[in-house]
Amino acid sequence: MIDKTENEKPLKESNQTLHEEPSLFEAKSSGGGKWKMKLFLIVLFSALGFLFWPKGYMSGEAVVQAGRFARMGLTNSGILKEVLHEKGNVVPKGELLVRFENPELARKLEERTFALEIMSHDKARIQREFEFLGKDKERKSILYENGVVGRIHFDKAGLELLKAQGELAMRTKEIESTEAEIHFLKGRVESLEFRAPFNGMLLTDPGIAVGNFLKEGDFVLEFADPKSFFLELLVSEKQISKIESGSEALVNFRAFPWKTYSGEITKIGPRTTEKVEKVFNVQYVIPCEIRLHDMPVNLKYGMRAWVRIGGRRRAVSKLPPQFQEPEQTADRFLNPKVLEAKKTGIGS
After folding, report:
1. Are 257 and 268 in contact (CB under 8 A)?
2. pLDDT, tens digit (0-9, with 9 covering 90-100), for 41-68
3. In CATH terms, is domain 225-344 a member of 2.40.30.170?
4. pTM: predicted TM-score of the whole model, two decimal places
């Protein structure tokens, strides 16, 4: 009996131990609830901070444009006769790029040039005749005064002189009209020769073989000055208040992703333009000009870049003076009193 009782004691102690375990699990679960509440509050405040924290920057995609750019097309129909430069060639101002011919214009110019030559010879003949008749009238006037010749001879000399004078005036008008026509035809023929309007690079060529025909108004080539390249960023009118002339810009080109270039906004467009993304989605944007402090060596017209504008933080300008805006420019538009003070000389 004693042994049985002693064996029952450990059993009771083990039962007591088993009854104490649930209390330990309850204490652990209450601590986990507090941790979840803290995590929820952190996420909530982070979201509110992201939504309401003032953002002093903006970003977008910009395209390389050229300040000096020429898109050339035919003003008269013609046949392509010669292509002297290929795409990508650097060409000095005035050098011939492409030459067209128009046989009809060439024929008319030749005819009118020949007609002008004949008219010039005829005018010279009439001029000599007019001078002779003028001297003849003077002689007959003296003879008439001395009674050597009659009145009829004197009047006839005067009529012949007036006739020659009329012919000379008419021929002079014809020559002037022909010269104007030749000048017009020469202009049309010269327009078939495309020359570099400034020092720059040939971006495109006619894209057709020599001997093909192009009609009036057809596109021929594009020409640009690489030294005038800049980035054009279209900024939504809702975000235009975040930037100003001189704002710092960081640029990453798709073609050169390993380097970040710095620059600044040098010009903000004076008006909005429409940017159609979809059929029923029209945005109103303002073009902004960005000049880089260091241009990539292999920068090409039309390249795209991702731009981040540092809000109203002004960049340390490294641009030439012609690209820098005066400090008072914006104030003159925002505050008319500043402009009026400048006119009257106050504060100068």
Report:
1. no
2. 777 766 665 555 545 678 889 999 999 9
3. yes
4. 0.59
